[in-house]
Amino acid sequence: MTTALDELRDVLPGDLEGTQPTGETLHVLIVDDEESIRRLCRLYLEHADESLAVHAPEIHVAESGEQAIAKLQELTERGERLAAVMVDMVFPKAPDGIETIERLWAIDPDIQVTLMTGEGHLVEQRIQGRIPGELLDRWDYLAKPFTEFQFAQRVRRALTAWISHSKEGQRRRENMQLLMQLAANNRELEETVRDRTRDLAHRAAEQEKKNTELEAALRELEAAQSRLLQTEKMASIGQLAAGVAHELNNPIGFVHSNLGTLQRYVEKINTLTDAYEQRVDPADEELSALKKELKIEFVLDDLPALVDESLEGTERVRKIVMDLKGFSHPTENEARFADINEGLRSTLNIVHNEIKYKAEVTADYGEIPEVHCMPGQINQVLMNLLVNAAQAIDESGHIHLRTWCEDEYVYVSVRDDGCGVPPDALSRIFDPFFTTKEVGQGTGLGLSLSYDIVRNHNGDFTVESEPGAGTCFTVRLPVNGCHESE
Hints:
The chain is an alpha/beta fold. Among the domains are: 176 residues, Response regulator (Rossmann fold); 155 residues, Heat Shock Protein 90. It has 13 helices and 12 strands. The strands form 3 sheets. The chain has a 5-stranded parallel β-sheet with strand order 2-1-3-4-5, sandwiched between helices. It has a 5-stranded mixed β-sheet with strand order 7-9-10-12-11, covered by helices on one side. Strand 4, helix 5 and strand 5 form a beta-alpha-beta unit. Helix 3 packs parallel to helix 4, helix 6 packs antiparallel against helix 8 and helix 11 runs antiparallel to helix 13. The longest helix is centred in the middle third of the chain and has 132 residues. It starts with a helix and ends in an 8-residue tail after the last strand. The N terminus is likely disordered.
């Protein structure tokens, strides 16, 4: 009796011997929601098992798409592969047959799929567009009802195709392994490059840090050098001013002393003239005419005023000379107690010519104790603040000075109504070489030197400014805060 498998062998001569991967079990999955169909398909395969003994297929069954997917995942976890799936087209619950094979292919695209359907060739229309072109050779359909021969033919076709694809897949897997090894080597190389890059970046950052530190040290050295040169310049100017003051002091002393003597002589002459007036005959017309011609009365009246004005002028010159002598030692290293109010007055007297054409100065001198400091250096600070205040005023304005004492500290504030300082420049105003003045009008060292002097006196500097409204500098000095070693 000729069986369906015998007919199949006649249609497809030869067997699969030599094509099945050595030691690999073929797995066939039957998916149908009707138990009778599942039993029938299993029976067909068991009858065909003898003729397809070389395949030795292992049969699995599932009643839904979800169970089919779970069975494939189970096989995959065991390291085994599913060769063929005979799946129904319609299920009571999703997924349907087409979605089931899509999800199966998402796990293993080499699976050979046969849709078992009662729709016949209409299934081609339903599946059109849902299967990617590269997978069209991995599916077929079997119209229900089907014979044992038809079922066995589809299974043999599916297994033959899967074995062929498996060999190709094996080559792909070997290539994939090579690619994975190459990718691993690339990752290792990239990691090595990243490590070297990080190391180089770290070294570059350290070098950049060192360069920044060196640049900062260089700037500080240049600033210190400039401050030293400025200090030496001030010292030279101070020595020159001291010499000029000394040279001026002697002739001014002579002139002042002589004017004092002249004042006494004028008094004596006036006394004698008054006596002569009493004894001269008023009727002497010649003498009266001469007296009127020489304007003796005016001369005698104006002469004391001239002497007084000259004495006042020489007194002012003597005061300037004395202030200049007191200001001529800004680098003195011996600290002593000094009157800040007096220092402010003398400094204001020295810079009066710088200020008088641009600003009116008002001063509010408070009752303050003497401060232990280096007076020449403090005077230099006050001079810088006064000159800056005058230079901040374009045409005419006002400068207000104030001193007061609070909590063992003496405060000096210099406020002007000039152009003010931009907000972005306030944080840099005490930096060496920084200036808001036009090129050629400032070195940028005045406030920097002043800041260092105040800090060396254990004091501090604050500044408040509003563009267009003016600036206020405030110096705070401890009454007993300066030491000679500083």
